[in-house]
Amino acid sequence: MSSNYFKVIRSGINSTFQDKGRSNLYHLGIPFSGAMDNRNYLLANKLAENDLNNPVIEFAYQGPLLKYIGDKIRFTITGDVSFKIKSKTSEIDGNCYETYEINNEDEIDILSTNKSVYGYLSLSGKFDVDYQWGSCSTNTKSNIGANNGKKFQNGQIINISKINKNFNKKRINYINTKIEKIRVIKGTNFNYFSEIAINNFFKKEFKISKLSDRMGTRLEGPKLENINSTNIKSEGLIKGVIQVPGDGNPIIMLSDHGTIGGYPKIGVVISADYDRLVQLPSGSKIKFQQIDLSDAETLFKMYEMETQNLLNQI
């Protein structure tokens, strides 16, 4: 055991290690995985003065309660999150996008995300985690990545391999904006769907199902009628593609999605909207808006520039 570590008092609902994920492994059936909300992941590492691909703890809805043992260290939490920092003599409410110092036997209690799904905890140092194919990202469906491919469990120890001693307090003003419409480009099987289905897809509301997870966002709403075939030969999938199974309820593929699928694809969520899409909790109402590929590319470049500008402010 390392001399610096966390003990997991409460594991939270879905707490895992994540980094930027794995690339170029689709031919082996292994998706990218990685942090769901890439912007908040990057901000967490930059605030902690880490390499931008440093492992972080990603949590969903309710996060973990962690007791720290070791030398003084700093941490930050990003997202829209309520959390407390507890010592033997005090308890304070923490603010996201700000660094805090903790000492031996202090606790970080991540109570909940606020009308969102994911938050991120980064240390001024590095977690002692295992890597597979160049990434520590945990895919619990495939048991791939750090922590033996599993989410955190009560009572487990999280070792810290390195602490950055020279560290300045950091803070940034950032508000997580909500998304009104999710912009999509046409999918490869767009013409499989009736005119009524296409009108419903772009004009009617859908609700995010409770069955959504890191693999996919399941939607409830008007059934999308397929006039060609409800099944196709299995084809490669990408993050953000929207499949429509035989029941007519769309599924948006997310970071841990399968790499092939046999359901027709009506659309693909543009990359610029992905981070905010994954933060929509179950029960949220969404609408889709069609744009063309050139506009999607321009919007992605703008979103990347905005992210870089935020990183430069830290």
Task: Throw out a few tags for this protein.
314 residues, alpha+beta, Cyclophilin, 2 domains, 8-stranded mixed beta sheet, 7-stranded antiparallel beta sheet, 4 helices, 30% strand, elongated
% residues in beta strands: 25-35%
Put simply, the count of helices is 4
Distance between the termini: 33 Å
Largest sheet: 8 strands, mixed
Helicity level: 10-25%
Integer-rounded radius of gyration:
20 Å
- The residue-averaged pLDDT reads 96
Task: Give the tally of β-strands.
Answer: 22
Tell me the structural class.
alpha+beta
How many distinct folded domains?
A: 2
User: For the largest beta sheet, what order do the strands appear in spatially?
Assistant: 21-14-15-18-17-20-13-22
The general outline is elongated
Order of helices and strands: EEHEEEEEEEEEEEHEEEEEEEHEEH
Ranges where pLDDT stays below 50 over 5 or more residues in a row are none
Describe this structure as you would to a colleague.
It is built from four helices and 22 strands. The chain folds into two domains: 5-163, no CATH class; 182-313, Cyclophilin-like (Cyclophilin). The chain has 314 residues and is α+β, with helices and mostly antiparallel strands. The model has no long low-confidence stretch (mean pLDDT 96). It has helices spanning 38-47, 195-203, 271-278, 293-313; strands at residues 5-10, 16-18, 56-60, 65-69, 73-78, 81-86, 91-93, 99-102, 107-113, 118-123, 125-127, 157-163, 182-186, 206-208, 216-220, 235-236, 241-243, 251-253, 260-261, 265-269, 285-286, 288-290. The strands form four sheets. Strands 21-14-15-18-17-20-13-22 form an eight-stranded mixed sheet. A hairpin with a 7-residue loop joins β17 and β18. 40% of the residues are buried.
